[in-house]
């Protein structure tokens, strides 16, 4: 993941001092330039807090998501939050003269994020952060070219890129034969090939549709006995006030649960065991209602999973539970992701060990604070503390407001 900083330093005649990396200072550093990083920066800047964002804007969305993808979230839940609400999806479409559409195309969303970034001006830098260390004065952020930034606060908004989940049976196979649906944009490379897609969630189902439409022979292999679909009962959303009481506009989770997860602050007070149940129910594997028609010609095998994968002269041979075999050219894994902050290679091992965690997720309190003073996590890494809304773009509004409220209060006390 690419990040960056301002360059600065003081010249000295001492040779040993000349070899020391130059240092600069920032009040707040945001690592990551996806929706959460950009939103946090916009809110911080709007509050008059000096901030520097590191990362290539929308890089994961632009280079890792399958080309032709449509966003699962409704348009109203696809806005990246800014302090005044001026940088909306609709504002971008009007500025770019793009006809609004639903569901929202990936390319439009990437363009929107990059337009949002341009409104931040010079507060974003695209160089690479190699390491973040905790020290008595705050944080020492080292770039891959040796530059160092000191900061009292670091906000980690680095996304889910490192968290791709690969079942053990595929873990050691070469990339020639197995890839995750979050690892490549070009689905056209599969034209004329036999591809098995593993999984039952939105990423697996849409990948299967896109690869099939690109001219591949696709089989969708699903552990569950049947697929589940989101929003198939339209009438539940067409009852006016009653529907608004049952569902939030974010459309995360089923009837009832949707309203609860729309309030992350409330979710943070729910006991962890129950909070986990709600979180998992809200994001269980399911596909959007516009996918079944596109999958009508895709072979579907349910109630089984791959128990063995063998590289052969003809490609890859898969053994399914039950004893049947498949020969394919490639496997695409739509198996989601597992949050584990130790996989962020820019966080030093010593720092990661200091962070109190539950199952790879940092334990966060108000202001998205971790157990290390001044270190904050937003986005998917916060979902176990604040609920499943933090997996989605819709969560940027709560995350940024909560984060900035805390930082602004602390900054005021230090004046």
Tell me about this structure.
The protein has helices at about 15-20, 35-45, 60-65, 90-95, 105-120, 200-215, 240-245, 255-260, 265-270, 270-280, 350-355, 385, 395-415, and strands at about 25-30, 50-55, 125, 130-135, 140-145, 150-155, 180, 195-200, 215-220, 230, 285-290, 300, 305-310, 315-320, 325-330, 330-335, 355-360, 360, 375. It starts with 14 loop residues before the first helix and ends with a helix. It is α/β, with parallel strands linked by helices and about 425 residues long. The protein is globular, with a radius of gyration of 23 Å. Strands 1, 2, 3, 4, 5, 6 and 19 form a seven-stranded mixed beta sheet that branches. A five-stranded parallel beta sheet has the order 7-16-8-9-12, with helices on one face. Strands 13-14-15 form a three-stranded antiparallel beta sheet, with no helix packed on it. It folds into three domains: about 15-160 and about 340-415, FAD/NAD(P)-binding domain; about 170-230 and about 285-335, FAD/NAD(P)-binding domain; about 230-280, no CATH class. Helix content is about 25%, strand content about 20%. The longest helix has 19 residues, at about 395-415. A hairpin with a 2-residue loop joins β13 and β14. Mean pLDDT is about 90; it is low at about 1-20.
Can you tag this structure with a few keywords?
single chain; 415 residues; alpha/beta; FAD/NAD(P)-binding domain; seven-stranded mixed sheet; five-stranded parallel sheet; 19 strands; 20% strand; disordered N terminus
Low-confidence stretches: 1-20
Largest sheet: 7 strands, mixed
- The level 1 CATH classification of the largest domain is Alpha Beta
Q: How many domains is the backbone divided into?
A: 3
CATH topology of the largest domain: FAD/NAD(P)-binding domain
Distance between the termini: 35 Å
Calculate the mean pLDDT score and round it.
89
Looking at the overall shape, the CATH architecture of the largest domain is 3-Layer(bba) Sandwich
> Roughly what fraction of the amino acids lie in strands?
15-25%
Helix content: 25-40%
Structural class: alpha/beta
Radius of gyration: 23 Å
Number of helices: 13
Identify the overall geometry.
globular
- The number of distinct β-strands equals 19
CATH superfamily of the largest domain: FAD/NAD(P)-binding domain
């Amino acid at each position: 993941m690419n990040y960056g900083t301002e360059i600065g330093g003081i010249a000295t005649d001492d040779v040993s001092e000349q070899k020391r990396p130059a240092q600069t200072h920032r009040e707040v550093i945001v690592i990551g330039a996806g929706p959460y990083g950009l939103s946090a920066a916009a809110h911080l800047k709007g509050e008059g807090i000096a901030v520097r964002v590191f990362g290539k804007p929308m890089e994961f969305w632009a280079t890792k998501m399958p080309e032709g993808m449509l966003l699962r979230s409704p348009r109203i839940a696809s806005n990246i939050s800014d302090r005044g609400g001026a940088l909306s999806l609709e504002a971008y479409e009007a500025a770019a003269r793009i006809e609004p559409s639903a569901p929202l195309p990936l390319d439009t969303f990437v363009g929107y994020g990059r337009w949002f970034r341009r409104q931040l001006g010079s507060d974003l830098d695209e160089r690479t952060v190699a390491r973040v260390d905790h020290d008595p004065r705050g944080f020492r952020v080292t770039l891959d070219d040796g530059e160092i930034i000191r900061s009292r606060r670091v906000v980690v908004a680095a996304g889910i890129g490192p968290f791709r989940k690969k079942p053990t049976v595929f873990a050691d196979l070469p990339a020639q034969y197995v890839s995750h649906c979050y690892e490549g944009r070009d689905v056209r490379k599969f034209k004329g090939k036999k591809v098995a897609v593993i999984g039952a969630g939105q990423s697996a189902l849409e990948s299967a549709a896109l690869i099939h439409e690109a001219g591949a022979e696709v089989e969708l292999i699903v552990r569950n006995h049947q697929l589940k679909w989101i929003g198939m009962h339209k009438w539940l959303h067409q009852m006016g006030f009653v529907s608004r009481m049952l569902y939030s506009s974010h459309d995360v989770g089923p009837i009832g649960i949707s309203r609860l997860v729309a309030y992350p602050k409330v979710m943070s007070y729910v006991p962890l065991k129950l909070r986990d149940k709600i979180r998992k129910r809200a994001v269980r594997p399911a596909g959007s209602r516009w996918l079944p028609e596109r999958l009508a010609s895709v072979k579907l095998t349910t109630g089984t999973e791959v128990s063995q994968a063998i590289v052969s002269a003809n490609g890859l041979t898969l053994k399914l539970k039950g004893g049947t075999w498949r020969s394919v050219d490639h496997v695409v894994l739509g198996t989601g992701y597992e949050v584990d902050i130790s996989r962020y290679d820019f966080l030093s091992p010593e720092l990661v060990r200091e962070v109190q965690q539950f199952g790879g997720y940092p334990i966060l309190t108000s202001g998205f604070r971790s157990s290390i003073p001044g270190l904050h996590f937003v986005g998917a890494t916060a979902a176990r503390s604040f609920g499943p809304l933090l997996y989605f773009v819709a969560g940027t509004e709560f995350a940024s407001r909560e984060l900035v409220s805390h930082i602004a209060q602390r900054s005021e006390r230090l004046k």
